[in-house]
Amino acid sequence: MEKYPSFLLENAINEFAKLPGIGRKTALRLVFHSLKRTTKEVENFGRAIIALRNEINYCKVCYNICDNEICDICSNTSRDISLICVVENIKEVMAIENTKQFHGLYHVLGGVISPMEGIGPGDLQIKSLIERVKNGKVREIILALSTTMEGDTTNFYIYRKISNINSVKISTLARGVSIGDEIEYTDEITLGKSILNRIDFSKTIVLQH
Amino acid sequence: MEKYPSFLLENAINEFAKLPGIGRKTALRLVFHSLKRTTKEVENFGRAIIALRNEINYCKVCYNICDNEICDICSNTSRDISLICVVENIKEVMAIENTKQFHGLYHVLGGVISPMEGIGPGDLQIKSLIERVKNGKVREIILALSTTMEGDTTNFYIYRKISNINSVKISTLARGVSIGDEIEYTDEITLGKSILNRIDFSKTIVLQH
Fold first, then answer.
1. Briefly, what is this protein's role (chains A, B) (predicted)?
2. Domain of A98, in residue numbers
3. Which three-class secondary structure state does DSSP give residue A99?
4. CB–CB of A32 and B72 under 8 A?
5. A209 band by pLDDT with thresholds 50, 70 and 90
6. pLDDT tens-digit profile of B101-133?
7. Both B161 and B69 in a single domain?
């Protein structure tokens, strides 16, 4: 462990080094960079991170991150409120929004069921999803979780809790060969599913327009 | 540019992305990490960086970073006050301190003369170095700047300003083949200098003890 000539310096290096992917060498570089910036710039930086943690809101409907009580997506009256896409985190919301192909609402679980990490159904926004399905005019739920063991477990848990409510339709993302992928290098499970769930070619022509 | 659902989120991502070596993807990851930490942890982080910038002191004698008026090295009475090692930054102070071979004091310039970056002698702690040489009991100055064009320029500038004061001796770091380096792969200039400045072999035996 190196000896630093100042407690403030050492403390700042330690704090930077706590961030994921940042070692002590990088932390030292970031600290020297901070010393070269103006007081105002460094205060803006520090306060932005503190404000993020202290003042961030979660939408009361879909639990997405937002600045108000209800997020922009849920309060957008032109969106289809009968369609809910269930995702793990805000990152997936942003990814799906970027496709511009989805015009329903979201429900952000805040993770997936993972006994290894001690995350049970009670730690996720599953109860609130069930309430939305019970109270709302929901016609279809799209499960858009990762295709991992944890994602599959969470999918199945939600399916069991929701399938008997109000005859709601439960769907999931299509799995198949990615656009641009070579068939030769596609993994067996994906390729197998893409054959089982093959689609009418005339439909793909329509989709491309 | 991606659209974020929250101003606080976007602001925090922008602030992280201003740091050197951190792009928007990494900034997003750091922001999500911050959201998972406790309020206390994030406040400690933000405040440590702000405090570093606002409260950091520079030693009134050598201009090294420190918490008090005078740094631990300058206030250590067992060190040789007649020997001053001139360095660019605190990083070099730490590197030289780690060798445990130097027992004099330092003088931290805060950079090197670089007309390209608009850094002149007036932006560095050169005047204060001249004052130290004039007023103090300095016997020798060791110039330990980088062997770059800017470092050489700064060395020469300091040499011209100091060489006629109080018959002070001005030395510089030995240049030569690094320990563990193969002669075959050593660059020509270094190898040439190591031949010109060759040393008595019997002296190296004494040094190793």
1. May play a role in DNA repair. It seems to be involved in an RecBC-independent recombinational process of DNA repair. It may act with RecF and RecO.
2. 77-173
3. helix
4. no
5. very low
6. 889 999 999 999 999 989 999 999 999 999 999
7. yes
State whether A50 and B30 contact (CB < 8 Å): no
| Identity of the residue in B3, B43, B66 whose CB atom sits nearest the CB atom of A5 | B66
- Using an 8 Å CB-CB cutoff, list chain A residues near B54: 39, 42-43
CATH number reported for the structural domain that contains residue B80 in this entry: 3.40.1360.10
- Domain termination site, one of B16, B35, B55: B55
Contact B116, A20 (CB under 8 A): no
Give the residues across from B107 on adjacent strands: B86
Interface probe for B, chosen from A13, A16, A49 (most Cβ of B below 10 Å), is A49
Say if B56 is an interface residue toward chain A (CB within 8 Å): yes
Handedness of CA B154, B158, B163, B164 (dihedral sign): positive
In a domain, A48, yes or no: yes
Q: Per residue in B3-47, pLDDT tens?
A: 777 888 999 999 999 999 999 989 988 998 998 899 999 999 999
CB-based contact, B69 to chain A, within 8 Å? no
